[in-house]
Amino acid sequence: MKHVCLITGASAGIGAACARLAAQRGYDLALTYNSDPKGAEDVARAADEAGAKTHIIQCDVADPAAIEAMFAETDSHFGRLDALINNAGIVDQAARVTQMSHARLARMFDVNVIGAIQVAQGAVSRMETAGKGVIINISSAAARLGSAGQYVDYAASKAAIDTFTKGLSDEVAGKGIRVMGVAPGLIDTDIHAKGGDPDRAARLAHMVPMGRTGSADEVAKAVLWLMSDEASYITGSTLNVTGGR
Fold first, then answer.
1. Would residue 154 show up in a list of annotated catalytic residues for this protein?
2. pLDDT tens, position by position, 178-189
3. Per-residue pLDDT band at 143 (split at 50, 70, 90)
4. Which of 27, 151, 154, 233 is an active site residue?
5. Which candidate, 107, 109, 125, places its Cα nearest to that of 71?
6. Domain containing 166 — which CATH number?
7. Which of 14, 93, 115, 238 is disulfide-compatible with 196, CB 3.0–4.6 A?
8. Number of domains in the chain
């Protein structure tokens, strides 16, 4: 029986790239989206063509009821869960900390931190029953760099994910579950446009020691390697995919 991977935020960018590669590597996929059903359908179609069985689920990870429903659908459709790519997240318009409203901060942490933790909770409860599993939390180089004058709130939310990755990994390592983080750097995806600066990655590429932006496919390859048996003695750490930045 093929392994099943749940990918949150799979309709575009890194989540979509992970889905396409996971399908090629032999996974069946539960794919979630929040507001882009067409993107999710396109990703599912590509995964289907690669031989995967797919199921699309609409889920706002800031809503606990939606997370519960997401896992119920995954259980019903596949009956197992072997891997989670905990990718769903948001960014906001560039702003100084003094300009950030409570509503902005609450939404940022509801999605990027609380939502990610609650998705991991659901995965762990299923993986503990099976006695094995892999969780990859998608972080960001912003957690180290701080993103001053841009989105310190986003950076802080990803720093929380790094700490969560280490703490959760220690809790579940004895249960046969590995938990890692992947921290992308300047990756050429539409997240920059969502933050109001579509040319940001190209404009800042000179700051990267390798002298270029990265691709979502390069991040996906790191994620899928960590999920594989080749990384069987790795847990509790976060891998930087940043071109050296």
1. yes
2. 999 999 999 997
3. very high
4. 154
5. 125
6. 3.40.50.720
7. 93
8. 1
